[in-house]
Amino acid sequence: HRMSFTIAIDGPAASGKGTISRAVARHFGFEHLDTGLLYRAVGQRMLEGMDPVEAAQALRAEDLDPETLRTAEAAQAASKVAAIPDVRAALLDFQRAFARRAGGAVLDGRDIGTVICPEAEAKLFVTASAEVRADRRWRELVAAGFDTRFDDVLADVHERDRRDMGRSDAPLREAEDSTRIDTSRLTVDEAIAAAIAAVNLARAQIGG
Ligand code: CDP
Ligand code: CDP
User: Fold this and answer.
1) 164 CA distance to ligand 2 centroid (A)?
2) Candidates 110, 115, 137: which one to mutate for ligand 2, based on the most atoms within 8 Å of Cβ?
3) Ligand 2: does its nearest atom lie under 6 Å from the Cβ of 98?
4) Is 115 in the pocket of ligand 2 (CB under 6 A)?
5) Do residues 10 and 129 lie in contact, with contact meaning Cβ atoms separated by under 8 Å?
6) Which of these, 23, 26, 32, lies nearest to 190 by C-alpha position?
7) pLDDT band at residue 2, thresholds of 50, 70 and 90?
């Protein structure tokens, strides 16, 4: 049977980790889990009046609809429920089982290389300046027809960075053994190529 191989990809909002993760998963033929969707789904339920811990415990894979969970409101709610230790604990087993599936897995989030899969075979930390990240999000919103001000998007990015890096349980931080990819001045294709090269290096090092 095929062995598992886990690629952990962490980084702040709009650093490009989702784009990179999807491309890396396609390249290696691995399954991909966007773990932000778990927290967005719980955040969305909190906005609808549900207790976040109960929502996390009841969450199922079918609930992770990327389309409905893309909103800025769901993102802010996600970063609030993500600071609750019982919420994080309820989502742990699902993520670890996904990471160890046969045939390989890519998980992207904030704590994959540090907490969920500290033993991941390859770890990437994808980052970019807050201004570049806010500009990317702002362009996506405008393209989708939203009438949004850049300054509001930048304020949102700063607020979420602060909350994600400042919480005591599984804060966003770079794992010591991760490869850093700063995408501020990279095209999407360049960032993807850098990620694939880093994973190939990790594979060669373990003889995989
Ligand atoms: O998952 P995360 O929030 O980190 O970022 P994303 O959803 O992949 O969005 C990043 C956005 O920046 C997308 O619109 C990309 O097309 C764009 N972008 C990128 O990902 N990487 C670059 N090097 C340049 C632009
Ligand atoms: O796509 P973007 O980077 O904007 O956000 P996301 O990856 O969908 O994550 C939304 C929020 O969920 C983050 O701001 C974190 O607070 C939380 N999150 C987390 O705490 N741990 C993860 N592994 C993934 C997301």
Assistant:
1) 8
2) 110
3) no
4) no
5) no
6) 23
7) low
Query: Within a domain: residue 92?
Result: no
pLDDT in tens, 156-190: 999 999 999 999 999 999 999 999 999 999 999 99
ipTM: 0.98
What pLDDT, on a 0 to 100 scale, did the predictor assign at position 207? 74
Taking CA atoms only, the protein residue closest to ligand 1 atom 1 is 18
What radius of gyration do the chain's Cα atoms show? 17
User: Which range of residues forms the domain containing residue 156?
Assistant: 7-15+111-196
Residue 79 Cβ inside 6 Å of ligand 2? The answer reads yes
Least confident segment among 46-55, 60-69, 80-89, 103-112: 60-69
Query: Contact at 8 Å (CB) between 18 and 127?
Result: no
Residue 87 in any domain: the answer is: no
Q: Please tell me the predicted confidence (pLDDT) of residue 3.
A: 82
Residue with tokens 């996390």: 56
Residue 179 forms part of a structural domain: yes
Task: Find out whether the beta carbon of 109 lies less than 6 Å from any atom of ligand 1.
Answer: no
The encoded tokens of residue 76 equal 């802010």
Span from the CA of 37 to the centroid of ligand 2 (angstroms): 7
Whether residue 133 lies inside any domain: the answer is yes
